[in-house]
Amino acid sequence: MLPELLRLGLGEVPHEVARARPGPSHERFSYPGVPIVELRRARQWTPERGGLCGVQANAHTVTTYQALDLHMARYLGAPQLSTWVTFAKYAAREAGSWIRLLETMLSLGHLGLGAGTYARRLRLSRSLLTLAHQDGLLPALTSVVLGLLEGDRTRTSPLAETHRLASLLSERRQMAWAMRHGLVEGNTEMYHRVGFAFDVFLRAESAGSDGRVALQEVITSGALEDPQGYLQAGFTLYREAHLLGLLARAPRLPRDRQWVLESCRRHLVHEGNLLIALQEQALVLQRPSIFAHPVLHALLGSVRPGHLRMTTTALPGGRGHEGFPLLPEGGNWADFEARMGVRDVTHAPDRPASAYPIIFPGTPPSEARYYVVDTNRRGTIVDLLMRYLAGPAGEQLQRGCPRDIHPL
């Protein structure tokens, strides 16, 4: 990839630039490592058993992504570019809001009706409503309930409507468990797959080794799954972007060549972000136990346009937080195509060679689907990756920290 990009406008690369290596101390990259701890046990949490809950696992995940984001920024060098972990730290924190809401609801349902639990029930209920309001979840929650009711509404008597509401309320605990399990599984699986991959890659690069080789070794050993090779391809692009950064910062490099190098570098990082996102959104989140689960799919499909958002950085003066609207023009966030911002061209007669093949869980490779990026859709992952890749918007995401999260 690197030689092809260099030919876009650099012409013959001078020997001293081609041999560029980190010289000054600020160019040398060192990575102390981050602890990748076992978080999957949070999937077994219940109010009865206790143990590591989904919110605690989420807090550790966000902290890890924040650290990895800072180290990746140092690895890539200036100008700053957002990588997968830049976006993941905010996305994970957003999932944490829902996990905290669901785990609190389930804990409330577990409390008995005795006088001794009244004060705790009241405190939890008040905290739940307060945090749901602060996290911007109340419109989405209301939208879900109304959507489920209207989705099954027929012109029947008020008594039938009452029975329908009672039935819905009686199923809420089962639905809450399904959604909680799906979100915790998705959160912890992403951490153990992609967070682990970043740590392996950065450790090798810091030691003067090739991060691509280190990733290949853990994949070959079975410690990491990469069925389509998109993880390896994504980190290969990150490494090439790192090398381009070294070239672009070489002394006495003409400005026009520096501009080409920086443009190529942005392209490499964006493509690396996209490849990792495509595989992980399909391989992890589109599992039958997560977004392909009928309950989660129905709940997210009931959310009305404009009621889902990803909270990002704090506004100055304590005026709240910035937010990225998710699918403001409509669509089900549980659908891979809608969520990613891609278009299925599997059976298109003129399917482009650049289409991305995607293999979903439980699907043989022969039944891969092919997608192209749809840049006309707002509020998608593709839209997010493009909008916050570079410039002031990207720098704001990198400098910012997701909100703290604690169990209620």
Quick take:
The chain has 408 residues and is mostly helical.
Question: How would you describe this protein?
Answer:
With 408 residues, the chain is mainly alpha-helical. It has a domain at 49-307. Helices cover 56% and strands 5% of the residues. It is built from 15 helices and five strands. A three-stranded antiparallel β-sheet has the order 3-5-4. A two-stranded antiparallel ribbon has the order 1-2. Strand 1 and strand 2 (321-325) form a beta hairpin. The model is unreliable at 6-26, 151-159 and 161-166 (pLDDT under 50).
- Our estimate of the beta-strand percent is 5-15%
Structural class: mainly alpha
Biggest pleated sheet:
3 strands, antiparallel
Large-scale geometry: globular
How is the secondary structure organized here?
Layout: H1 2-6, H2 15-18, H3 54-76, H4 84-110, H5 118-134, H6 138-151, H7 158-170, H8 172-206, H9 211-220, H10 230-248, H11 255-285, H12 294-301, E1 309-314, E2 321-325, H13 336-340, E3 342-344, E4 356-358, E5 369-373, H14 381-387, H15 391-399
Antiparallel strand pairs: 1-2, 3-5, 4-5
List the main descriptive attributes of the protein structure presented here.
three-stranded antiparallel β-sheet, 5% strand, single chain, mainly alpha, two-stranded antiparallel ribbon, 408 residues, 5 strands, globular, 15 helices
